[in-house]
Please model this.
Amino acid sequence: MKKLITALLMAALLFTLALPASAASSYIRDSSKLRGADYTDLPALASALDTVFSGAPRMYADARCTALAPAPIGSRNVPLGRTYYVKSPSGSVYAGTSCYIYANAVYATLFGDVPYHGEPGSWVHSRRVGGNIASASYEVFSSLGVRCGALIRTTSNADGSYNGNSGHSVIVLTYDRSGITYLEGNGDGNGLIQVTARSWDTFNSTTLSGRGYKISFIVQPTDNYYKSLAAGAEQKPSQLVGYFSRSGAGGRFSDVPAGAWFASGVTLCRELGLAEGRGNGVFDPNGTVTVSEAVAFCARFLSLYYADGYDFTPKSGAWYAGYYEYCRLWGIDTGFAGPFDVITRGDFLLLMARALPKEAREDRVSGVTFTDVPQNARYASAVRELTRSGIVSGSGGGLLRPDQGLTRAEAVTFLSRMADKSLRLSG
Model:
């Protein structure tokens, strides 16, 4: 896999993939092996692809978009043959089944827009290209200016029109003269989103002419929107993991002295949107963290890491309902205690380890163990992972005190080390 440098990307707005000459088809079905940066040099677009690979794009089971689909997009647990819905930022709702609605949901995640088979005026960023193409090639796609993230819809209609008929929808990742790589929903017939790499001959025989299909339309963002995605792409990478960005939230809490050991953690977590105060200008650093607050920390970290813009506002119920739902979509178990129980240090680290992606972990610290952490404790492996990454330091004397409650000052210290590698311990 090789990437174009940003300058070439902005000049040609094309993305390349080198396929072995002998490779007709290859598949990647384990999303944990995928990184958005393998397909694009645009940080914002790479972040959105990481969200897609995580299974986070939102599909709904009802036309009002109030009930999420029974499992994240791409999961084998999404029942096939049912109609699901995707909502655009403008509020328009689109329906479909199988690969078509999957592709719409992926596109919406990548570009904050939903492509449709109507007129281009119904799209926020998109423009429509192509149509009635029975045989695709590098030359054809280059002449159309097809880019990373473009949605292709094929059709069985002889004239290339689309009227809800049979066909297939895919999202282009990369292509060059040897072949094309794309995301396809329901690619294995079981709902799974997979990455498929094919030579042009195989792509045509399996997706177009060989099945009697033509490309009905290709949609992708406008030139100006791609340029906005590229803004800042040449900046040096910060120590912040994922795609966190500082909000610049100003002001200080009256109970957080500038020289306090936890002050920098409070400031960073507030700027990143990871933590808030408790009203009336106080942070309450010595207050204990409840399980529901810890779940909120976990959900915010994941959402901000992948920059998916998830809205945690509950439609009904308690304030923390949206955070629990988000963690459920990620398969994170939050049922180890009640929402108003004080979370222990051990369980907090267990929850945070579940939120920290593999690529954000490091081997910085070795040989550190805690005498009060049994090897068979449910949080033991999480403590080892976070300690090795320089996030956990214990409470002195070789102790972690895993069964004690956690203070808000301690929580933001852990969170800030998770988000900013320059704050992590080493040795």
